[in-house]
C-alpha cells in the first residue's frame, strides 16, 4: 500500500520555526515549533487529508478545508481561559492552510491512560497507557473547567460534538489547567455541508443517543451527555457501558445521571453543570 503524500512543510513559516512532527490525525498534522521573535514554543497545525482517510470521514476534502479555516478564525475570536486560542492563520506555498496555537505539553489522556473496558485489553497496554481514575477533587476541577469552556462555545450557538480526553489539552503534565480544543466536528450556526450518510460524527463511546441518530440536529445538550460520560470515566477508570453503576460518590452520582439523562431537555446547561460542580463537596 502506497504511503500518502502530504504537503511539504518548510523549516520556517514567517516568524515560526518548524521543529518536529508530533501528531498526525485524520485531517491534520501538528508540529512543535518556536516563535523566533518571542522565543516561545508553539503548535503548528497543518491541514492534511489523505484520500484513504477521506472516504471514512463525514465530509469531503473541500468541506474539511473550509471547516479548518473557519475553526482557526473562530478560535482566534474566543477569549476564554478554558478554550485554546489561535494566534495565526497562514497558507503553505500550495495553498494548504495552517494555524498556530500555544504549545501544551499534554492532553488528558496522559493522566488517565487509554479507554479500555476489556480487562485483557487493558492489561496488554504499556503501563503508562493503561486506564486510570482520578480523585474526586481532580475530577471536579477538570469537568468544571470543561463546562466553562463549553459554555463559551454554547453562547455562540456552537456544539462541539467531540468531547473526549484527547481534546482536552493540559497546561502541565500533572494537574494542569484545561484547554478545550479541536472544533473540526463542531456544529455551527447556519449548518454547513451535509455529512456522508452512514458515517459517524463524534467518538462513539462519548456520543449522546440523539447524536448517534442524527448529528446535524443536536443541541448543546449533546455535549453535556459527553461530559457525563467523561466524568464517569475519570472517577472509575472505565466507560459507562450497559447499565449505569454508581461511582461511589453521592454528589457525583447525581451529577452524572443528570448529564446523561436520556432526554436532552432533562440535562443541565454547561453553566448549570459548572455551578453544580462548584457547590459539590469532593
UniProtKB/TrEMBL annotation:
Single GO MF descriptor: ATP binding
InterPro entries: Kinase-like_dom_sf, Prot_kinase_dom, Ser/Thr_kinase_AS
Annotated Protein kinase domain residues: 16-282
Region (Disordered): 117-137
Annotated keywords: ATP-binding, Kinase, Nucleotide-binding, Transferase
Highest taxon of the lineage: Bacteria
Pfam families in the cross-refs: Pkinase (PF00069)
Protein name: Protein kinase domain-containing protein
Species, as recorded: Magnetospirillum moscoviense
